[in-house]
Write a structure and sequence with these properties.
120 residues; alpha+beta; 6-stranded mixed beta sheet; 2 helices; globular
Amino acid sequence: MATLFLDGPAMNVSLNLARAPVFLRVVQDQKTQKWDALDQIADQPKDDEAISMYVLDGDVSYGIACSRDKNGSHCRRFWMAEYRYYSQQPTQEELRDYDFWAEWTQEQWGKLRDKPKGIA
């Protein structure tokens, strides 16, 4: 199991994340319709991606998947979390602006009644 989006534009989409922040921008490529999450701090949306904003819903856990091939054993950690579409969506332009995003998420954090614990 990976990270699941429970509602909104990315409803029932499942992605593998390297981080599970409380607030997460999720993008959909308008040409290929593929989904991705901007879960890394330096991640930026591409011009042809539509952005939706999600908030962590509940606890985060992780799993470890291991496999073996001709080069040996390989293990990776993956986050298991669920996200809900955030009702107060900034504009697409605002979601593309990293400085706005950083400030806005701090403001929204103060407004949350139940503060989930993300994994940075």
